[in-house]
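hiii so my PI (J.) wants the whole complex modelled not just the main chain, which honestly fair. so below is everything: two entries, each one labled with what it is. i double checked the lines twice but i was tired so who knows lol
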Amino acid sequence: MTNTLHRFGPAESFRDDYVVFAMCSKGRNDQDALPRLRRFLELAVPFKPVNLGDAIHGAALRPSKHMTPASHWHRDTAPDFPAVIRGLTGPTTVAAVFDNRPAAEDFVKAVKDAGLGLSVNISTSIDGAEQCCFAAGIPRHSVGYSLGFEGSTEKLPNSKVLMLSTMCGHGMISHSLAKKLIDWVREGRRTPQQAAACMTRFCSCGVFNPTRAARILDQVARGESQ
Amino acid sequence: MKINPEKCVACGNCTYVCPMGAIYIDRKTHRATINRDECVECYACLNGLSQEHLNPIFVRIIRRLFQTFRLRFDPEPDVCPTAAFEPDELSWPRVVRRAFSDPRVPHESTGVHGRGTEEVKTNDVSGRVQLGEVGFTIEFGRPGVGVRFRDIQKMCTALAQSGVAFEKKNPVTSLMTDVARGAIREDILDEKVLSAIVEIKVPVERAEPIIRLVWEVEKQIETVVALGVGARCDEHGEETVVAPILEKLGYKLERAKTNIGLGRITNPAGQAIDLSRLPSPSGAR
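here's the output for the full assembly
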C-alpha cells in the first residue's frame, strides 16, 4: 500500500491526515490473519475514523450498482464501517484513516495493547508519525520516506488537484475528476463534503481522507492558498 | 474494458473518471469510446462509477430535449445512467495492464494486491531492509500519467549495469527474462500500465550514486517517477543515517510511512528473525 506514501502536499497539510494500516506478510504471519485483521478494524471504530477499508473490497463509502433516479437528490454520504468489517474475506491490507492526531495516537496504543502480531504502519507527516509512536511508547522500526514526484512532472496538474487525486495512490481518482469537483464546489454546484464523498467512492482500499479533501476543496473554492 | 454502444447515452460522466483520459465522446457515433492503446484496464470506470439501469432510448430523448432548450440537468458526476461498461476478456499480453493497474487484482507473483509489494511495510517480520541498508521503491507512472514497460526497462537496465540486485518478490522482477541485465520480456514492452514499482536494496554508501543514476534515467523516459526510500531505525526508533543523505541531495522530507514494529512471525513454518544478529550500521553492507 505505497498508495498512502506519496500523498502530495507540505507536511503541514497532513495535520488532519493519519492513515494507520495493518498487513500480514506472505508466508510469515498470514495464516489465521483474518480474525486479527478484523479485530484491527473493530478497534478503530471507537476512535471515530473518517474512513475504513480493505484492499480487496473497498472503503466505507462505495459506489452503488443499483442507483435510482431519486438517488441524485438523496445521495448517501455516511460511511458504513460495519460493512467493511463484515466484508473481510481473507488476508489483505486493512486501513483506518483519522483526521486528528489524538485519535490516531489512541488507536495506535489500542493496537499495540491488542498484540495482533500484524505489521502496522502509520502514513502521515514524519513528525506526526513520530508523535504517535512516542505517545504509544513504541520506537519506530523502519521508515519509508517519500521523495515526491520527479521526471516528466510537466505532465502533472496543479498542486491542488494533486493534493486531492494522490489521496488514492492507486490512481483511481483521476486528475480530471478532482479538477471537475474543484470547479463544481467553486461554482456552488456541490458542497465540499459532497464533492469529497464523490471522490471517496472511487478509492478502492479505503485510505482516501474525506475530511482533508473537504478542507482542501473549501480552501480552493474560497481562493485560499493553504 | 468496453462500452456497450447500445446502452451508452454519451452523458460524458465517464470521460472525467478515467485516470488515463482514455475515454472520449466520438463525434461521429455520439457514443463514449475508449482509446484502447491508452486504456490501462484499471477498471476505475466500471468499479468506481455508480450505476443506474435506465432505458437508453428514454435518456437520449430527455438529453436531446434539454440540449435543445439549453437546459442543464445537474446529475451526480459519478454515475453511469445505463450501466454501459462491460469487462472485456483479456488475453496475454493485455492482461498485464490489468494486473498492474486494477488494485483489486492481486499479483500472481507476490499474492499482494495493489502494486504487489511489501517493501518496508512488513520489514518488522521480513527483515528485508536492515541497518546500514537502503531499500528503494522506484515507482513509474504515478500519479495519473501511466507508463509503458519499455520505459521501465530503461531504468532496470541502467540499475542492473550499476550492479544492484532487484527484489525477487516483486511483480516487475517476475516479468524479467534476464534479471542480471534488467531485461523485461519483449512481448509486454509496449503495454501501458497505471503504475509499476521496481525495488532494489543497496548498502547505505551507495544511496547517493543510485539516486543520481535515477535522475539521469528520468531524463530519458516519458513519465513521472515517485521515489520511496526505506531505512531501518535504530533501537531508539531514530533514523539518522539515510535522512541526512537525502537532505544533502536537496530533498525536503515531508511525509513517510512508519513501520511501528508490531509484527510477529506467527506461521508455524516461518523462521523467526533474530534481531540480535542484525549487523550494526558501521559493519553493514
